Amino acid sequence: MTTAKDIQLPEGYGLQAFDVLDSTNEEAKRLAAEKPTQHLWVQADQQSAGKGRRGREWISERGNLFCSLLWKADCDLKTASQLSFVSALAVRDVIADFLQADRRVLCKWPNDVLVDGKKVSGILLETAGEGLTDPEYVIIGIGINLSRHPEEALYPASNLAELGCPDLEPLPALQSLVASLDYWMTEWRQKGFDYIRRRWLERAKGQGEQIIIRLPDEEIHGRFIDLDVTGGLKVETESGIRVIAAGDVFFAPAG
């Protein structure tokens, strides 16, 4: 049985594992206040107050992977936001490897991962520490549905067990994720965001297709054509090209 002590970490990284936390992102924020000099992974078997994008609840029962990386930043906020796509690629590769089904596993803008069109993972980026434009730390919160998923969700969901990968435990999954994220962060640092952007598009669902983007005060219908240089979603609408910085994407029904 894998324990937290068995997790192999890249140089400069630490790991803190817990039975129960309110949220791994919240624990990462508390750790950031202690000014750690290394990057820290935080993992919990269960969360009592897990959260997703836009403050939504993230169902956090035992059996799934709940973790966050407290990354000591060395870039500005605009650059740090690229980690959303870096992280999505890392998670996608982990899931595709577990399922041995590369083409079934796709990225959904901005940072979800889908298998057979159903959401199995989510990512939440936050910042911590002083500085608004140059954050001290970036927190990358990641949840992967290993053995269960919410029955009622904003987007159809599933888990890896029902998709063909039973008996996968959180800590072995974390080990794979640690290695995958380290790989993709190295690629990002060495090759830049345009490389990441192109790799993400190769693994994206819906490019060239009709999509719906729901914003707080508007619903946009159009064709997903590209990502811009910042990662914004480029959509061709009846009134022209629009670039969306944040929103919830849904895929239009066939026909």
UniProtKB/TrEMBL annotation:
<keyword id="KW-0547">Nucleotide-binding</keyword>
<dbReference type="InterPro" id="IPR008988">
    <property type="entry name" value="Transcriptional_repressor_C"/>
</dbReference>
<keyword id="KW-0436">Ligase</keyword>
<keyword id="KW-0092">Biotin</keyword>
<dbReference type="GO" id="GO:0005737">
    <property type="term" value="C:cytoplasm"/>
</dbReference>
<dbReference type="InterPro" id="IPR045864">
    <property type="entry name" value="aa-tRNA-synth_II/BPL/LPL"/>
</dbReference>
<feature type="domain" description="BPL/LPL catalytic">
    <location>
        <begin position="14"/>
        <end position="189"/>
    </location>
</feature>
<dbReference type="InterPro" id="IPR004408">
    <property type="entry name" value="Biotin_CoA_COase_ligase"/>
</dbReference>
<dbReference type="InterPro" id="IPR003142">
    <property type="entry name" value="BPL_C"/>
</dbReference>
<dbReference type="GO" id="GO:0004077">
    <property type="term" value="F:biotin--[biotin carboxyl-carrier protein] ligase activity"/>
</dbReference>
<dbReference type="GO" id="GO:0005524">
    <property type="term" value="F:ATP binding"/>
</dbReference>
<protein>
    <recommendedName>
        <fullName>biotin--[biotin carboxyl-carrier protein] ligase</fullName>
        <ecNumber>6.3.4.15</ecNumber>
    </recommendedName>
</protein>
<dbReference type="InterPro" id="IPR004143">
    <property type="entry name" value="BPL_LPL_catalytic"/>
</dbReference>
<keyword id="KW-0067">ATP-binding</keyword>
<dbReference type="Pfam" id="PF02237">
    <property type="entry name" value="BPL_C"/>
</dbReference>
<dbReference type="Pfam" id="PF03099">
    <property type="entry name" value="BPL_LplA_LipB"/>
</dbReference>
